[in-house]
Structures are given as C-alpha cells and as structure tokens.
C-alpha cells in the first residue's frame, strides 16, 4: 500500500514539474486521450519510484562526503541525476519524459522534492 501511495505522489509531482518547468516534456501519443496521458504519467512515476528506491540510496552512500561537506544540498544534485536517469530510461519507449539539460533537471527535481514533501505530510501513512 505504501508503494502505491508513493507512486501516486510521484505521479502528481512529475506532472506538476512537467507543467511548470519549460524543458521537461511528457511525450505521449496524441490519439490516446486523457486516460492514456494518465497511464503515461503513472509509468514514468513507476520508473522514477524504482530508480529512487534502488539506485538513489547507493548514489547517496557513495557521495556521503559531498553530502556532509555541502550540509545536504548535494541531495538536490542527486535528485536531478535521478530525474535525468528516469528520462534516459523512459525515452527508449514511445512515451516518456524528456529533460533538456542538467539545470532543467535541477529545477524539476526541486519542484518534485517540494511536492513530495507537501503531499507526504498531507497524506496519512500506515507507519504513523
């Protein structure tokens, strides 16, 4: 159940980042309609959630000295790299997310982090 909640929160965050940041585009087929667009965003959120669950902890462990040196601000760079990795993985399909560059990914990661923080605080969790 926690995975589904995390997936829904990531889907909303990615959709908002694509809406607000120029240079982040969600590529869908034009004839699918709204239901197809939602499935594409859920697919992108699934890939993003899996990347954050398995690859992000390893990257954070390897970059621990930089995280300590920057007092945690390097986490924003790691989040941007995870967004770029998600973009790279999903661009191999017919639909996915495309990010123009590193600084676009930083702005997108900042929006995704803020939306994740707010929605995680609002949505009740089974762990509380």
Automatic annotation (TrEMBL):
<feature type="transmembrane region" description="Helical">
    <location>
        <begin position="67"/>
        <end position="89"/>
    </location>
</feature>
<feature type="transmembrane region" description="Helical">
    <location>
        <begin position="38"/>
        <end position="55"/>
    </location>
</feature>
<keyword id="KW-1133">Transmembrane helix</keyword>
<dbReference type="Pfam" id="PF04020">
    <property type="entry name" value="Phage_holin_4_2"/>
</dbReference>
<feature type="transmembrane region" description="Helical">
    <location>
        <begin position="7"/>
        <end position="26"/>
    </location>
</feature>
<protein>
    <submittedName>
        <fullName>Putative membrane protein</fullName>
    </submittedName>
</protein>
<feature type="transmembrane region" description="Helical">
    <location>
        <begin position="101"/>
        <end position="123"/>
    </location>
</feature>
<keyword id="KW-0472">Membrane</keyword>
<keyword id="KW-0812">Transmembrane</keyword>
<dbReference type="InterPro" id="IPR007165">
    <property type="entry name" value="Phage_holin_4_2"/>
</dbReference>
